[in-house]
Structures are given as structure tokens and as C-alpha cells.
Amino acid sequence: MKPQSLCAMPVVCLGLLMSTMANFILTNSL
Prior knowledge:
Elements: H1 3-6, H2 10-29
């Protein structure tokens, strides 16, 4: 699964970015 093919759909790319950022923030705040 390549990032390019994933970002072909902006909604999926945005969702992935949001979940990654949320995960990063949650991990840092613990």
C-alpha cells in the first residue's frame, strides 16, 4: 500500500493524517 495511491482520495489521506496527529498528541500527553 503506497502513500501515493492512498492520497488519491483526499478524504482518506486527510483521515489518515488526522488519526496520526491525534495518536501522536495522545501519546505525548500520557
